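Incident review: delayed structure delivery

Summary: a single-chain prediction request sat in the queue longer than the usual turnaround. Root cause was a stuck worker, restarted by the on-call engineer. No data loss occurred. The affected request and its eventual output are reproduced below so the record is complete for anyone auditing the incident later.

Affected input:
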Amino acid sequence: MAEAIAQRGLLDLPGLRQLILLVGLSGAIAAGLWLVFWSQGQNYATLYSQLSERETAQVVDALQSAGIPHKLDGPSGSVTVPEPQLREARMRLASQGLPQSDALGVEMIQKDNGFGTSQFMETARYQLAIETELARTIVKVQGVQSARVHLALPRASAFVRDQRHATASVMLQLYAGRRLESGHVAGIVHLVASSVPDLDAGDVTVVDQNGSLLSSPDGNDPLAVSAKQLEYTRSVEDGYAHRIEELLTPLVGDGRVRAGVTADLDFTVSEQSSENYDPQKQVVRSEQTANDQRMAGDLAMGIPGALSNQPPATSPVPPAAKQQPATPAAPPQPVATTNRATRNFEIDRIVSHTRQATGTIKRLSVAVIVDNKMVPGGDADAKPTSEPWTKEDIVRYEGLVKEAVGFDEKRGDRVQVINASFSPPAAAGAPAPLEPWYANPLFKQFGRQGIAALLVLALAAVVLRPIMKTLLQPSRAAMAALTRGGGDLAGDRVTLSGGAAPLPNYEQQVAAARSLVTQDPRRAAQVMKEWVSTDGR
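Output delivered after worker restart:
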């Protein structure tokens, strides 16, 4: 009888209300199923990010061919795949050479260029390959996200006066918050200069994504000279300060001394040439002598003319003289003698060329602050106390500082050492920040299932329970018929001998009501609530 009353309650509802209840019930069941499937869904991990449209299309085609599910993130240009298949996807793409860069390097030369390619296209392709290979190498430098290289290679000329040197420019895209040191920039400059013929390091320009010039300008530029001088001054000051702190730290304790140094350097460039002679020091450099003698027979005699220039005639020798032995003639005596001598002396000479050293120290100003010393307490459990240093200690520290920096009073150096109590840092003993609980991977794994379970319970409590309660609630007409004894009870008659049974009396109706209450007390309570609400109206 109870099931009949429930069916009558559903049938007694209006048609629009029945449709709304059925639609709500279907939607609740669908939402519950979606939450269950959503909680069991896979986590997607980033495969590659910041890809160009060309690279993204190639990667997506390869993933589709391999049957790997994927998603595209429009704003970031990244491709995501299920986390368990991340390694497999990367291995498959790597086997196909993906992702490729927008510009090909040596691969461009390896490709078949076809028949009839012009010399201009071959040269342009070769230059582009060199630029791409240099960019790929520069990207390996730590802190560089991407790079582009532009080469200006002049055409070779047979005339010497038309020869021009190659130039290059490098555009660097650095990671956020990163900056390149001067040594790294110099390394990139020399890398490019060494890879291109007839390219000097001074002809390579390096800029970053902000348009800032990273490479040093020409060495003769005043700005470049000033930058180098400032860098050298800072290095000298930091070196002196570090030396002072290392000297005093073992005496006063770690972190209890601070030193600051200001150096006044002289970068004046001066050159001097001198040439000195010492007349007291003479050395014979060269000597030349000549001796000339004239004899008596060599002199010209007689009347000047042609006859005097002829040799004397020989007279015949008498026969008697032939038989006598010849007596030796006396040697002729010189009539005139001439002696000449030439001597060259070298005077001592000193030639000197002096160039004064740049960056010499003109004056030093040193300031040192020493923290109070820590004195242990009298008891073992007592905390140490802070006490200032004595005047003798400060004087002794000042002497050490002067010796460390090479103090020169004539130069105008100044050194000052003071004692003051340091303020403790705010986060001196604070523990390291813990990782937030929501960043734990287990939270991401089980959090989705927990949220889905809570949503299913809320859906069942808020939507399904009222709908089922309404469907199982008997209508007012059925309850009224039950109370009046009509309806189905009135139609139930027992016939004996072909006659109709009389209607139940009051006692029978009360007994039937008690039986219903005993069988289904929950429904009886619902009837009582219906009566109370009906009487209240």
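Verification: Confidence is low (pLDDT under 50) at residues 1-9, 485-500.
Action items: add queue-age alerting; document worker restart procedure.
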